C-alpha cells in the first residue's frame, strides 16, 4: 500500500515531455508514490473498493491538499496525464480510482536493467509489440491544462492540433480565463443544438473568431465628476447680496430687542 517503501524512477523520463513541466512532473511522481504495490481491498465510507497494483483512490480536494495546488489545477494536470495515456481515471460522484499505466513494468519487485527491460518487451506477442511501438513512436504534444479544459468543455471539439495552434494565437490577446468564460456563455446559447450545427472548436477561436461575441462585458466607466461651476457676481449682484445680509442682521437685532422687552 502507499505510504511506505520506495519507488523506481526510470532514466528515460529525462527524454519525455513531462519532465519539462515541473507541475506535471510533480503530479506524475505523486501518482506513482500513491499507487499501491500489492492487491488489496480499501474501505471508502461504506463501499469496499478492490485495488490492483498501480492503483489508488483519491478525490479532487484530497489531491489538491496533498499536491498543494488549487482543486481545479490539480484535476487539470491529472486529466493531462490521462490524455497522454500516462494514467487512467475512473470516477463516480464520491471518489476516483487512478491507475498508473505501465506501473508494473517499472515498479516490479526485482531490479531490471535496460537490457533486461528490452528483452521483456521482445518476449511480448507480435500484436502487442506493434501496438506498443506505435504508441511509443507517435509524437505526443503536452498541452497546457487551460487548453485541455477548453477542449474538454467545448460543445463541438474538433481538430485538437489546429485548435491548439489557434489557442496559442488568441491567448496572446486575451487571458485564458477570459476565453474559458466565452466558451461557457456560448455553450449555454447552443444548448440543445445538434452537434453538426455548432461551430467547431478550431473555428471558434480561429478564422471566424466567434468567441469575440461572447467575451465578458467590461465594467462601464463611472461618469466623471465635473467641478462645480463658480458663478461670477456682478457689481449689482454684490450690492444686492450686501443689502440682503444687512437686512438679515437688522432683523436679528430687532427680534432680540423684542424678546428683552417681553422679559422686562
Blueprint (SSEs and pairs):
Layout: H1 22-34, E1 40-44, E2 47-51, E3 55-58, H2 60-67, H3 71-83, E4 87-91, E5 96-100, H4 103-107, H5 114-122, H6 126-137, H7 145-153, H8 160-170, H9 176-189, H10 201-204, H11 235-263
Antiparallel strand pairs: 1-2, 3-5, 4-5
Brief rundown of the structure:
With 264 residues, the protein is mostly helical. It has a 3-stranded antiparallel sheet. Strands 1-2 form a two-stranded antiparallel sheet. About 2% of the residues have low confidence.
The run of helices and strands is HEEEHHEEHHHHHHHH
Q: What's the architecture of the largest domain in CATH terms?
A: Orthogonal Bundle
Q: Per CATH, what is the topology of the largest domain?
A: Arc Repressor Mutant, subunit A
**Structural class label:** mainly alpha
Number of DSSP strands? Answer: 5
- Can you tell me the CATH class of the largest domain? Mainly Alpha
CATH evolutionary superfamily of the largest domain: Winged helix-like DNA-binding domain superfamily/Winged helix DNA-binding domain
Radius of gyration: 36 Å
Unreliable residue stretches: 110-115
- Major β-sheet profile: 3 strands, antiparallel
Distance between the termini: 106 Å
Number of helices: 11
Structure description:
- The chain is mostly helical and 264 residues long.
- 48% of the residues lie in helices and 9% in strands.
- The chain has 2 domains: 11-137, Winged helix-like DNA-binding domain superfamily/Winged helix DNA-binding domain (Arc Repressor Mutant, subunit A); 145-214, no CATH class.
- The chain contains 11 helices and 5 strands, in the order αβββααββαααααααα.
- Helix 2 (60-67) crosses helix 3 (71-83).
- It starts with 21 loop residues before the first helix and ends with a helix.
- Residues 110-115 have low confidence and may be disordered.
Amino acid at each position: 500500500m502507499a505510504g511506505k517503501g520506495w519507488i523506481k524512477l526510470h532514466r528515460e523520463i529525462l527524454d519525455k515531455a513531462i519532465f519539462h513541466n515541473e507541475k506535471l512532473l510533480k503530479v506524475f511522481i505523486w501518482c506513482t508514490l500513491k499507487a499501491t504495490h500489492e492487491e488489496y481491498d480499501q474501505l471508502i465510507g461504506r463501499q469496499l473498493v478492490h485495488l490492483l497494483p498501480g492503483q489508488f483512490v483519491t478525490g479532487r480536494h484530497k489531491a489538491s491538499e496533498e499536491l498543494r495546488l488549487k482543486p481545479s489545477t490539480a484535476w487539470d494536470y491529472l486529466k493531462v496525464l490521462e490524455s497522454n495515456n500516462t494514467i487512467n481515471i475512473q470516477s463516480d460522484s464520491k471518489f476516483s480510482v487512478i491507475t498508473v499505466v505501465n506501473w508494473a513494468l517499472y515498479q516490479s519487485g526485482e531490479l531490471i536493467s535496460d537490457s533486461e527491460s528490452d528483452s521483456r518487451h521482445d518476449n511480448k506477442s507480435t500484436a502487442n509489440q506493434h501496438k506498443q511501438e506505435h504508441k511509443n513512436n507517435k509524437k505526443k504534444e503536452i498541452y497546457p491544462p487551460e487548453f485541455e479544459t477548453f477542449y474538454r468543455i467545448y460543445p463541438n471539439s474538433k481538430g485538437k492540433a489546429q485548435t491548439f495552434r489557434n489557442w496559442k494565437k488568441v491567448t496572446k490577446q486575451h487571458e485564458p480565463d477570459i476565453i474559458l468564460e466565452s466558451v461557457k456563455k456560448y455553450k449555454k446559447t447552443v444548448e440543445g443544438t445538434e452537434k453538426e450545427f455548432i461551430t467547431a472548436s478550431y473555428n471558434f477561436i480561429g478564422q471566424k473568431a466567434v468567441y469575440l461575441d461572447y467575451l465578458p462585458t467590461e465594467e462601464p466607466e463611472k461618469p466623471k465628476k465635473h467641478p462645480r461651476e463658480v458663478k461670477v457676481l456682478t457689481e449689482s449682484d454684490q450690492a444686492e447680496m450686501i443689502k440682503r445680509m444687512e437686512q438679515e442682521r437688522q432683523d436679528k437685532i430687532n427680534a432680540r430687542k423684542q424678546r428683552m422687552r417681553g422679559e422686562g
